């Protein structure tokens, strides 16, 4: 009975020791088995593991992708326009032995602190080598990739892999916003003034070309009109001369009738002439001009009027 009472505690202790010697490795973690601080086992595959109780300890590290949000960092690009940058880093442990040696007992918390310093140094180095316009343009993706590659090389000494780096915010410091906006307004106003000046210059060229074209067209039109008027006057004189040569008396008669029609109107028929004057030669009873009445002018003596008004006046004389 005494033996049985002693065996039961021994069996319980042995069972407890046997159970404590077993450990489970989850698929979301990596496991180190340490003995007096020395690494004895590395387990990354899920399953059941065995350790020496009370001598060996199990240290677990997350095998999933972890995130790190950096604190706002002020950087100075090449053009000395300071920027406030926030970045987000994704990383995971790839070498748990090296990770243990690098960070010691503090684990992930210490690794995040060191990764943030690595990330900040990479951001300063990359963004400090380009102007601020490149940070705010479509070149931003290439800059983030450069930061990621630089941080990845530095973080490899910790046994971790940097998966990706993203710049979540890139803004100007509050104290620089007003000065920056004023400079941007000045630049836009200068560009607008340049555009207006170029537009005025182009408008002046167009106006000068239009004015020259107008002068050329008007001059050509006047030249053509003078040519046509001269040809018409020459044709009129030819017709007059031909009509006078065929029947001088009839020509004189029609010219006198035209003169009567234009001079004897209701509104301006005030004439002081002798009844037997030559003007009324065709109004006398015989219908013939008085002896010694002036004959119609010859064709070569007919003046060439310079305008239709002069022609009409000549016809009315």
From TrEMBL:
Assigned keywords, A-Z: Hydrolase, Membrane, Protease, Transmembrane, Transmembrane helix
InterPro entries (UniProt xref): Band_7 (IPR001107), Band_7/SPFH_dom_sf (IPR036013), HflC (IPR010200)
GO biological process: proteolysis
Disordered, as annotated region: 290-317
Subcellular location per the Swiss-Prot or TrEMBL entry: Membrane
Pfam families: Band_7
Domain (Band): residue spans on this chain: 20-184
GO molecular function annotations of the record: peptidase activity
Topology relative to the membrane: Single-pass membrane protein
Annotated SUPFAM superfamilies: Band 7/SPFH domain
GO CC terms in record: membrane
Entry keyword annotation includes Protease: yes
Entry similarity comment: Belongs to the band 7/mec-2 family. HflC subfamily.
PANTHER family assigned to the protein according to its UniProt record, in alphabetical order: MODULATOR OF FTSH PROTEASE HFLC
Role, per record: HflC and HflK could regulate a protease.
The name this protein goes by in its record: Protein HflC
């Amino acid at each position: 009975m005494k033996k049985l009472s002693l065996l039961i505690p021994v069996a319980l202790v042995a069972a407890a020791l046997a159970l404590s010697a077993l450990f489970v490795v989850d698929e979301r973690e990596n496991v180190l088995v340490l003995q007096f601080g020395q690494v004895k086992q590395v387990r990354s595959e899920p399953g059941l593991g065995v350790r020496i109780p009370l001598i060996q300890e199990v240290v677990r590290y997350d095998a999933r992708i972890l995130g790190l949000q950096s604190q706002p960092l002020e950087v100075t690009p090449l053009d000395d326009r300071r920027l406030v940058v926030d970045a987000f880093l994704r990383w995971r442990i790839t070498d748990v032995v090296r990770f243990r040696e690098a960070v010691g007992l503090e684990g992930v918390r210490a690794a995040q602190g060191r990764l943030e310093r690595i990330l900040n140094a990479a951001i300063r180095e990359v963004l400090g080598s380009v102007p601020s316009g490149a940070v705010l343009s479509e070149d931003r993706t290439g800059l983030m990739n450069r930061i990621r590659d630089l941080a990845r090389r530095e973080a490899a000494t910790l046994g971790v892999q940097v998966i990706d780096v993203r710049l979540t915010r890139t803004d100007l410091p509050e104290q620089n916003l007003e000065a920056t906006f004023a400079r941007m307004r000045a630049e836009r106003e200068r560009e607008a003034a340049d555009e207006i000046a170029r537009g005025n210059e182009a408008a002046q060229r167009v106006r000068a070309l239009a004015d020259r074209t107008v002068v050329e067209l008007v001059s050509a039109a006047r030249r053509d009109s003078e040519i046509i008027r001269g040809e018409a006057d020459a044709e009129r004189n030819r017709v007059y001369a031909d009509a006078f040569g065929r029947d001088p008396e009839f020509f004189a008669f029609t010219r006198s009738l035209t003169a009567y029609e234009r001079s004897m109107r209701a509104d301006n028929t005030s004439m002081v002439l002798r009844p037997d004057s030559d003007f009324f030669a065709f109004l006398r009873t015989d219908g013939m001009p008085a002896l010694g009445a002036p004959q119609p002018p010859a064709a070569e003596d007919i003046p060439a009027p310079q305008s239709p008004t002069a022609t009409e006046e000549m016809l009315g004389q």
